[in-house]
Structures
1.
Amino acid sequence: MPYTISTDIRDDHLYVHVTGTRTLQGAQGVVRDSVEAAREASLDRILIDMRDFQGSLSVGEGWSVINKDLNRYRPHARQKVALLDMPSEQDRLRTFELIAANRGFNLRVFSEEAKAIAWLLV
């Protein structure tokens, strides 16, 4: 099943809910669609809820999404992005968080929505 996203503006940030199967192409599409939706809403804070996005990316695929796909949106790198995912994905996503930080992106990983929102709105 391909991915789908739904978006909602909440408390000065864009909430993006992702469902479907997590693939490299799906992750690339989520990046593209989320950044575009935030741009259209004139918001620079994004919470991407991936708890219903099934599966995992390899470290190499995550590196590709950050280095190639996210990097395409460098003019919008001022954006703050919180990734919300299941606790079982936290170790893998922490690697992606580190890669993103090393490239100048303000991206953090969370397993609790309240903590993600608190960080996002500071």
2.
Amino acid sequence: MQAVHSNPRLLYVLAEDSGAAADYSACEKAASRSASSPGNANRELALYLAGKGGDPAKAVQVARKEAERKGDVHTNDALAVALFANGEIDEARRLMKAGLAVGTQDPEILAHASKLAVKVD
């Protein structure tokens, strides 16, 4: 059961479900420890920092680094959310539009697009 409690992605899902500060703290610590590993939770960490973590500048830093490494639609979504939270509205919307242009139907990305006021076709 220890592996469950050290998996930052799972901890993020649990924190989102519970909303408990202690759960988000555990997620942030686990994500920070695995930041450079292939199976990291940098996307989740950026989303947390952009929102309930209250550190959008750090969220942008984490998401940019991950986007340079991966560049996938999910990572770019996290970067767009972080940019928006950091007040970089135009860049956030441009990036979100580019992500939507590939035709993603991921409900989380579509929800983020809606929050950024980006038209979902």
3.
Amino acid sequence: MRKTLLLGCLVTLAVSSQAQIINEGFEGIDTLPENSYKAYTGGQAYGNWKVVGTPSVTGIDLVRDVWPGSALGSDYWTDLAGTPGPGGITRDLNLKKGTYTLAFLAFTNNGAYQIDFGIQGVESRTISNSLVGADNLPVNANWTLFTEEYEILSDGTYALSFVTPQGGNGNVGIDDILFDTAGGPGGQQAVPEPFTLALGAAGLVSALRRRRHRN
């Protein structure tokens, strides 16, 4: 697996080696110095994605930062809050009729933020600190795993999007987006079983600090 992250304690996301329709960790979008970010505004290309936001005004940030989570690897992630936000990313997918699984990591350090995600015309979902259960996005600056299943009823082009409607101070990050058929290539379970969570023995990383959004 590309990297190890914290989900309360050190967690490894074990996934199949088979290729997925989307296997996105944001490393290939640009090369940034450590502990830095680059702003992208609405309409700009973002790797295989397009930025959601007001052109030349609002959008997202590509971040290379060991915060949040462990410092065991590089790492790149997307801040939907942007500099400034709000913003998001969207990507068109040519899909066949069938069942698909989405999995991704998210975090926030601001209770006002939410993430709206889904496939346009099929199903959308909101996660935030104000919701409970599987839709709760904790305000603890730790990565949390979210999964969703989609039933595509006919062949066609569909837009997969991740958006936050709020701007202001704080971060709302996403990373490690996996999307594939529910059975995976060749009938393998490409989007986990469902995401094997192996709790590491390294223990907790001390006191992840809350911080204001980068100026």
4.
Amino acid sequence: MSDELLANVEAERRDIAAARYYQEHPNTIKPATFYADAPPAKLTEREAYLSGLLIRAGVAEPTPPSPQQRAEADFNSHYPDYAESEVNPLMDAEIARLNSLTPGERTAMSEALRASLGAEEYDRLVADAKLAPGNKWTDAHGASAPVLKVTAAAGRYHVRKEAARSRITGGVE
């Protein structure tokens, strides 16, 4: 009942808003509402009646989101959370394959990758990869260039996302 009442009140409020807009901008198309020709005082009176109706029915009016809530919603739409497997579905299969190798084979692959990338670049990628959300670092991550680079990118993304979140939210979660 309360959802239906709230929906009806919201629909009526939209009609009132359309009538107000039409009264302020008479060169626009006249809305097909009961309130289109109502005087402004009648519209204000009806809005007050609708608010009172909700109060009497015990239905809480939805509060508009605060600027902080809107900023967080906008932030979350631009910086979605994702799982590593969502980014690259082949990552799980590759990590499983690497985990099936012996530790000696993984170490040899890691050393070969370190030699091919250069020690400084490899160490930077490993440090970035360890910042990834969930921090599921294993030696298998360091044995494959694609896995290492994707995990490092996820770590850098996570760090930048949290830095942006703290700027927007002022450090409040």
